[in-house]
Design goal:
about 450 residues, alpha/beta, TIM Barrel, 2 domains, 15 helices
């Protein structure tokens, strides 16, 4: 049996210096009825009877109970704990625990990088880290002295990501001999040899963040100059050759094939079709035309959650509003609607719009990924993958031809404990038997290179 490649089409690599933390803390889905209930469940019954005004009378008790809550298990803390590491270690950490497991839990991957998903053998995981352009010039924070828009340079984040890929190729994590409960970095036995991951990032871009049309043209010339004449096979070869070769500078080197695609993030203020601003529309149209001509895949955030900072986020993000106008003019655009449209059930009309695209022969380059959706727990009677299975039974195999596996790691740590668990949910679900290879290997390979 010849091993194949398993593709994770939606992955994130960042540390606390990259993310817009104010946008994160103001997420609509961070403080919800469920998180409040979770806090309430951890409180002693008698604490719920204390009037708020009585807190001043028993500060020691309240502080102690709050400290117990903060020191207890928390998915938010799990995410922040991961993000507190330097981005240079992210790939090494995920690889280590996939191959070693933790605390009695099974490892997902053998030491030879082999793993089975429904009797199909894999020996590589292709990760597509999606860079988010976190700059948001219109963000206002009332009542604070330093009311400044976050200056999160996408160039700095890009350089850190490319450095992390190069670091991953040269090092590995091993248990410390001095402190057995810790890990330390050591030189890898051979550059690239035996590595589990192939890593093909997507460049984050928001043309409305003070980019001129000439600057956007230079971006395509700098990062995608070779895409015009290559073949799918040649593109995959060149991306692999460039992987991990970044040396710490953008000056004097050929930057083409460091990136496989482009990432848009509408909730931070990207309008896919700014029809009332002809200059902005011209920039967007240039991007779409270049992506079609060069066969560059595009992924856009398409969920009602996320880093929401713009009041028009839903209009910009909805697959049937501004994006419908884009596809009306550019039906050949290779576009992935991430998260299958929405994470909450009450917005199933987003999903229905995406299904319409998948079934329409005019939009054969429209895809959708399952990132941050494939959660399963014993408390759930109906799992997400069961719902996808029902959609395939209802609409036929055609709806499956443009579906992609995605994790949304590390953001998915808000709902799962590890990359291991998210991968296990997909591997072990009884749903989608006969379709998993299509979703995690065949479709994403066509999306990236075809």
């Amino acid at each position: 049996m010849i091993p194949k490649k398993f593709y994770d089409s939606h992955f994130h690599v960042m540390d606390l210096s990259h993310a817009n933390l104010m946008a994160f803390l103001l997420r609509e889905d961070l403080i919800t009825k469920e998180t409040i209930r979770d806090f309430s469940r951890k409180m002693k019954w008698w604490m719920k009877l204390i009037p708020l005004g009585a807190i001043d009378l028993a500060p020691g008790v309240i502080v102690r109970k709050l400290k117990e809550f903060l020191e207890g298990p928390s998915k938010v803390k799990n995410l922040l704990s991961f993000m507190e590491n330097s981005i240079r270690f992210d790939f090494l950490i995920v690889e280590h625990f996939l191959k070693k497991g933790k605390e009695g839990k099974e490892r997902m991957i053998t030491s030879d990088n082999l793993f089975l998903v429904d009797d199909v053998l894999y020996n590589k995981i292709v990760l597509c880290p999606l860079v988010i352009d976190f700059r948001y010039k219109n963000m206002q924070q009332k009542g604070i002295f330093y009311n400044l828009p976050p200056n999160k340079s996408v160039i700095d984040q890009t350089a850190d990501l490319l450095t992390a890929i190069a670091h991953y190729m040269q090092y590995e994590l091993v248990p410390s001999t001095e402190f057995p409960d810790r890990l330390h970095v050591t030189s890898y036995g051979g550059y690239r040899k035996g590595k589990l991951f192939e890593i093909y990032p997507f460049l984050g871009l928001n043309p409305q963040n003070d980019y001129t049309l000439d600057q956007i043209k230079r971006i395509f010339k700098k990062y995608f100059s070779g895409f015009d004449l290559d073949t799918p096979k040649r593109r995959s070869e060149l991306l692999l050759q460039k992987m991990g070769t970044y040396g710490g500078t953008f000056e004097g080197i050929d930057l083409s094939y460091f990136f496989a695609g482009i990432k848009f993030y509408p909730p931070l203020g990207f309008d896919p079709w700014p029809e009332n601003d002809l200059l902005e529309l011209q920039k967007n149209c240039y991007i779409y035309e270049q992506c079609i001509r060069k066969r560059i895949p595009v992924t856009t955030h398409c969920s009602n959650g996320g880093f929401i900072t713009d009041p028009n986020a839903e209009t910009y993000t909805h697959p049937g509003k501004q994006w419908f106008k884009v596809l009306k003019h550019y039906p050949e655009l290779k576009l992935n609607f991430a998260h299958f449209g929405a994470r909450n059930d009450h917005q199933t009309h987003w999903r229905e719009q995406i299904i319409d695209y998948l079934l329409n022969k005019d939009y054969e380059n429209v895809y959708t990924d399952f990132s941050c959706r494939g959660f399963t727990t014993d408390k759930q009677e109906h799992h997400f993958y069961d719902e996808v299975e029902e959609l395939i039974e209802t609409y036929g195999n055609k709806v499956c031809d443009q579906m992609l596996f995605g994790s949304d790691f590390m953001i998915n740590l808000l709902w799962t404990d590890s990359y291991n668990q998210y991968l296990a949910n997909f591997k072990y679900t009884e749903a989608l038997r006969g379709h998993k290879e299509q979703i995690c290997s065949i479709n994403p390979e066509r999306f990236l290179f075809g």
